[in-house]
Amino acid sequence: MRIGILAIQHESNTFIPEFTEIENFKEAVHLVGPSLLDFYRGGHHEVAGFIEGLEEAGYTPVPIFATFAFPRGPVSAAALEELWATASEELRGAGELDGLLVAPHGAAVSEHVHDMDGWWLSELRALVGPDMPIVGVIDLHANLSPKMASTCNALVAYRENPHVDQKERGKEAVSILRRFFENAAKPVMATAMVDIVLNIDLQSTLSEPLLTVIDRLDAVRSNPGILSVSMIMGYPYADVPEMGMAFMVVADGDVELAERECRLLAEWVLERRHVFSPDLLSIERALELALSSEKPVGLLDMGDNMGGGAPSDSTALLRYCTRAHPQLRFFACLWDPAAVAEAERIGKGGSAVLSMGGKSPMSPAPPLEALVKVRDIFDGRYSESKPRHGGWTEFYMGRTALVETENGSTIMLTALPAFPSSAQQMLAFGLDPKDFDIIILKGVHSPVTAYQEHCPTLLRVNTPGPTSADLASFTYQNRRRPLFPFEELPAESSS
Ligand SMILES: [Zn+2]
Hints:
binds zinc ion, single chain, 28% helix, 6-stranded mixed β-sheet, 23% strand, alpha/beta, 14 helices
C-alpha cells in the first residue's frame, strides 16, 4: 500500500493587514521528497504520526509535500498558487497511490479564497478522483467548512490544548485509513457546526468549562460503532462564515449513528452555552494576583500571542509591569531585529540605553527604553525532546541577544519571532526561571505544558493586540450571525 502524505498548514489572522507570502513558508517548513520524511520522523507532529503509523502497518509512506508558515495575515493569492502548483506537481509525479493522509491546519484564509483549506482539498479530490480514501488531521483551532468535510472521507482534530497529542492523532488517522483497505465497513463522517465562538481564554483542555465537555466526548467514544470523535474549538481571529465551534464524528460504516451522535453533541453544548462566557483578567488584576502568588508567575500575554499571528513584540504588559512594580524581576522575550543589531554593536558586557520591542505596525504600545547591559549574544538555536504544543523539536530564533536591566530583569531580543512552546528557550541559554518573579509568555496555551513545571502560577492576561481575547474589540464583517456570546441565540437553537 502506497499512501501519500500532504500537509499545507497555516492559521490566518484576518485582522493582520500583512499577507503571508511564499517566503514565510520557505523559511519555516517547505519540504518535498525524502527530506519530508527525515524532517518529521521521530518527532511529535501529526505527520510524524502518519509516518510511524504507516510503517507499523507495513504500508509505504509516500512524501508529497509538507509546508508550514507561522500564523500571520491571510495567505497571498500568489503564495497559494505557488503552494498548490508544488503540491499538484509532486502528486502527479508520485506514482500510483492507494490513499492519502492530509494535514491542513483548518484555519487558513487566502487573499481571494476565504476557505483556503476547503479549496485545496477540493482541488486534491478533483485530481485523485472520488474513490481514493483521504483521511486528515486538523488543529482544534480549525474553522471547519462544509468543503473540508465533504472532500475528506474522515477528519480527526487534536484533542489537547496545549497540543501535545498531535502524533497520536496522526496515528489515529492512519488507523481510520487502514479500515478502507482492511475492513468490510468503510468509515463515514458526520459534522455539525455550532453557533458558539469559544473565547481563546476558555480553550484549555486542562480545566473547566472544557473538562465536562471532554467527559461527554469520551462517553461517545466508548460506543463500539464510533471510530473517532472531535471537538473543533474554532479560531476566532479569522473573520469567515465558518468561524466557531463544530463537532466531527466518524463511525464504522453507520452514517446514521455518526449523524445522530454528532447532532446530540452539538445540541448538548448549545444548551450549556452560557458556561462559555469569558471573564477576562485585566493587566492590573493579574499583577495584583501575581504579587500574592508563589514565584515565578507566568503571565500569558493573550493579545500578543505569537501562535495566533501576533508579532510577539508588544511591550504593553512589560511596560506596565516595570512601571508599576519596578522591584520585581521580569523575563520577557521580544521579537526585535533592530534591537538585536544594536546589542551586537554595543557588544557583550557593554551597557547602553536600548529601545526594545513595540516597533511593528501592529504593536499596541511603544518601545520600552531602558539602560541595559548586554549579557550575551548567540545564534538562537535550541532543541526540545519532549512533546510540546506544535509538535516541533528544533527551534530557531535568529540572532539573539540577552540584555539585563539594573534590577536583574532580563529581556531576550530575537531577530525572528520566537515560538514560546518550549522552556528550553530559557534553559538552553543558561537562564533559570526560578531567578525571576514574573515570566512574560507570548502565548495563551502553547507555553503551558513547558512552563507549568517551572511556574507554580500561570495567569492568562487580557492584553491588547491582534490576538486580544476581548473579541468585542474586533470588527467582524463575515462571521455568521447569530453567534453566541456576541448575540443570544433564538430559543429553538437549544431545543
Ligand atoms: Zn492550535
